[in-house]
Amino acid sequence: MIKNRHKLEEFKRKLIKEENITPKKALALYEALHQEAQFLGVINSANILEGLETDLRIAQALNGLTS
């Protein structure tokens, strides 16, 4: 549970400012994590969309709580 929304928002802004990651770097990081997940057998082309609808509903509910 978030007790101090202002502190959380300040933390997020500071983190984004300090990380300053480029879109190219973010994509490279995503691709590396995706390859690692495939290597570990967590995801594959057969199950990559499995559970997506549930994840989307959860994300929408969480975003609704923080709006």
Provide tags for this entry:
single chain; 67 residues; mainly alpha; 3 helices; flat
Describe what this molecule looks like in 3D.
By secondary structure, the protein is an all-alpha fold. It has one domain (5-66). The chain has helices at 5-19, 23-40, 52-66. The radius of gyration is 16 Å and the shape is flat. The chain starts with a helix and ends with a helix. The model has no long low-confidence stretch (mean pLDDT 84).
List strands and helices in order, with pairings.
Layout (H helix, E strand, L loop, with lengths): L4 H15 L3 H18 L11 H15 L1
Q: SSE order, as H and E? A: HHH
Classify the beta-strand content into a percent band.
under 5%
Radius of gyration: 16 Å
The number of helical elements comes to 3
Number of strands: 0
Largest sheet: none
Net shape = flat
Share of residues in helices: over 70%
Note the gap between the termini.
14 Å
Number of domains: 1
Report the average pLDDT across residues: 84
Low-confidence stretches: none
Structural class: mainly alpha
